[in-house]
Amino acid sequence: MRLSGQKKILLTLFAAAFALRVILVFTARGIATDGCSYLWLAADIAKGDFRSGINAFLPPLFPILSAGASFIFGNLELSGRMVSCLAGSLTVFPLFLLIKDIFNKKVAVVTVVLFIIHPYMLHASAEVLTEATYFFLTTSLAWLLWKALKNKKAILFLPIGLIIFLTALARPEGTTNILLVFGWIWLTNLSRIKKEFKWKLAASFFCLIVFILVLAPFYLHFQKETGRWKPTLRHIPVIDDKWEHESWLDTTVRVLKYKLGNNVPELFQDLPKAYYPPLLVLLLFGLIKRKSYRGFRAGEGFILSFILFRIFILTVFAGVTDRYFYAFIPIALCWASVGFWEINDRLLQKCKMRPFIIGKEKISRTSIIILLVVGVLCLPKGLMPIRTNRAIQKEVGCWLGENAGMKDFIVAANKHQEAFYAGAKSYILKPGNYEEIIKQIREANADFLILDDSMEKTCPEFMDMIKENDLEVFSTAFENRERGIIIYKVVK
Q1: What are phi and psi of 60, to 5 degrees?
Q2: What is the crossing angle of helices 334-350 and 105-117, to 10°?
Q3: How far is residue 490's CA from residue 470's CA, in Å, rounded to a whole number?
Q4: What is the pLDDT of residues 153-178, one digit of tens each?
């Protein structure tokens, strides 16, 4: 069977995305702290134990996928990375189809190319984290919703409801996507709401019924196991016992002020970083200096709604960091692609040299140089081994696992990584004085204590106060290495 031109393009782009991401999977040097928790949960799930995940209320989708992949790849860490790799690579398909429908094929191709080589998209697609899974689902949701709205296909809201459920399991804020979808259903073509009322009602019903049917059992099980209907929120410093008699409205206003005061400054710093600074020049031409694409398309407002909605949710209800913006970076790259073609069209008008012909498109020699420069600025950074700063923790953990002299043991430390690679249980130290930390370690029944330079923040005087009847040195092999790690055995 002969493949069409578009299918060949898509398969080629997918193969390129997958190949680059596989390189990062097998050159990764360590694991994020959150990644340890996800993989421990995945290990429990692989054994048929879902209770620990329910009680911890970690987003369960990534651990479930990693647990399933472990039956194929064996190694749990590799399984988690391959889940991200596959999700990141598969994003090529909905991204291409969405941008092609809103703009055209040439804008879609360059958008996907920029996504493939984007350093942060590359890294996210090899991490043991939820980012790649989430931006794949978000991009898929955007494409299906656009297609459903454009073609007035209510039946498409069945898979849309399922995807919203999956985004809710991928990240806690994913549940709010149903508000965005309902907004588009009911606010589109308001002038024709009487004529389209039945369609809008059917679309809402299909979306909501799937979302409720699949989400309700999960929350019912969570309530049954924990006695709560929602997870325990992280402590917010502005909330204190002295405010316990304050009204709900006053508390809400004060918390919002606290969050906005902390998150808005971070927003202007982290958003350009997430987009990747070298691509901001192309973004400028794609948004402001437009001649070939005069006027904004309806689809651009659609894309912008996904971006602004997520920024609002993060700023007001969650937190701001560059990695949390990754969810909409793939679709936002369309404007960098438009900027590239704007530059290309201008150069073709001024350039007297004969252009290259690729397919049916004319590309100036200078434009090819620009694309190569973007590649040079992106790929070396994108293909750098991820988590090199965690390599020593992996080495220490593996060494301890081989030399501990016991099968089941507990490691106390400031991070999870050493315990994860040692195949041990982990206890994270809480700040305090020497006596308080020793008490923590004994109450946790820890067998080993791993100290590094991060102990300065936990207890600056701890190293100078160590007593022989509390701790004995187990290994100083890593003392003169990065982080200056010393392993102590807890005296029972």
Answers
A1: -85, -15
A2: 120
A3: 6
A4: 989 999 999 999 899 889 888 888 99
Is residue 387 within 8 A of residue 415, CB to CB? The reply is no
pLDDT per residue over 10-29, tens digit each?
Answer: 999 999 999 999 999 999 99
Residue 202 amino acid letter: A
Residue 255, pLDDT above cutoff 60: no
Query: Which element (helix H / strand E) includes 413?
Result: strand 410-413
What confidence category does residue 238 fall into, taking pLDDT thresholds of 50, 70 and 90? very low
Give the strand pairing for 356-358 and 361-363. Answer: antiparallel
For residues 87 and 229, which has the higher predicted lDDT (pLDDT)?
A: 87
Q: How far apart are CA 267 and CA 271, in angstroms?
A: 6
Q: Which residue has the tokens 């007035």?
A: 152
Task: Return the closest-CA partner of residue 238 out of 266, 261, 209, 216.
Answer: 261
| The predicted structure's pLDDT at residue 241 | 46
Instruction: Give the separation between CA 190 and CA 196, rounded to whole angstroms.
Output: 9
Burial class from Cβ neighbours inside 10 Å (0-12, 13-18, 19+) for residue 386 reads buried
Output the CA angle 454-460-466, nearest 5 degrees.
100
DSSP assignments along 342-398, one per residue: HHHHHHHHH--SPPEEETTEEE-HHHHHHHHHHHHHHHHHHTSPTTGGGHHHHHHHH
Residues in CB range of 351: below 8 A, 6 or more apart: 364, 365, 366
191's tokens: 């002038």
Task: Residue 350: name the closest of 291, 393, 406, 400 by CA.
Answer: 291
pLDDT in tens, 266-318: 777 888 899 999 999 899 889 886 777 777 888 999 999 999 999 888 887 77
Asked whether the predicted pLDDT for residue 420 surpasses 90, the reply is yes
| Average pLDDT, rounded, for the chain | 86
b/e sequence 423-449, b meaning 16+ C-beta within 10 Å: bbbbbebeeeebeebbebbeebebbbb
Enter the pTM of the model: 0.89
**Mean pLDDT (whole number) for 311-336:** 86
Q: Is 191 exposed, middle or buried (0-12, 13-18, 19+ CB in 10 A)?
A: exposed
Domains detected in the chain: 5-382 (no CATH), 389-490 (3.40.190)
Structure tokens at 320: 């701001």
- Element housing 310 (H / E): helix 298-317
